[in-house]
Amino acid sequence: MTREIISTDAAPKAIGPYSQAVRAGHTVYLSGQIPLDPATGELVTGDFAAQATRVFDNLQAVAAAAGCELDDAVRVTIYLTDLGRFPEVNAIMARYFREPYPARVTIGVASLPKGATVEVDAILVR
After folding, report:
1. In terms of residue numbers, what domain contains 68?
2. HSE on the CB side for 84, CA within 13 Å?
3. Residues contacting residue 45 through CB under 8 Å, at least 6 positions apart
4. pLDDT more than 90, % of the chain
5. How confident is the model at residue 119, as a pLDDT?
6. What span, in angstroms and rounded, lies between the C-alpha atoms of 20 and 99?
7. Which of 19, 61, 75, 108 sits CB 3.0–4.6 Å from 123 for a disulfide?
8. Can you give the pLDDT at residue 33?
9. From CA 65, how far away is CA 96, in angstroms rounded?
10. Per-residue pLDDT at 72
11. Long-range Cβ contacts of 20-28 (<8 Å, 24+ apart)
12. Per residue in 8-46, pLDDT tens?
């Protein structure tokens, strides 16, 4: 099976040895996105809602570069440094996805790259 690397300037460049996304057949694997501004590469400051929104905007940009949309997601993983933010991230995620929703797992973690409070990755099938 051929792998295709997906890349876009509309989302932050990778901060390590990985691709923004990889397509294998009809499946697209989106790497985790943290709230980095794609124009500056800096972490978005402000409240949690602004950070989570930036994360989903970044995911949406990578999905679009792959010829997909977030509604093509079959699995989403959310990493939170504070599980008390669970209701907030649910409300923000609901603005980006329609029913039927993808499968999802939310994991509490001690820390994330660059001091981020939220990271999200996804698997899409087109």
Report:
1. 3-125
2. 2
3. none
4. 97
5. 98
6. 25
7. 75
8. 98
9. 16
10. 98
11. 20/62, 20/65, 21/62, 21/63, 21/65, 21/66, 23/66, 25/1, 26/125, 26/126, 27/123, 27/124, 27/125, 27/126, 28/63, 28/66, 28/68, 28/72, 28/123, 28/124, 28/125, 28/126
12. 999 999 999 999 999 999 999 999 999 999 999 999 988
Nearest residue to 81 (alpha-carbon basis) of 118, 114, 45: 118
User: Six-digit token pair at 113?
Assistant: 């790259």
Q: Assign residue 100 the CATH number of its domain.
A: 3.30.1330.40
Amino acid of residue 101? Y
Which pair of structure tokens corresponds to residue 44?
A: 């978005």
Q: Which amino acid is at 62?
A: V
Closest by alpha carbon to 77, among 51, 57, 107, 54?
107
Max Cα-Cα span within the chain: 43
The Cα–Cα gap between 63 and 102 comes to: 15
Over range 80-107, report the average pLDDT. 97
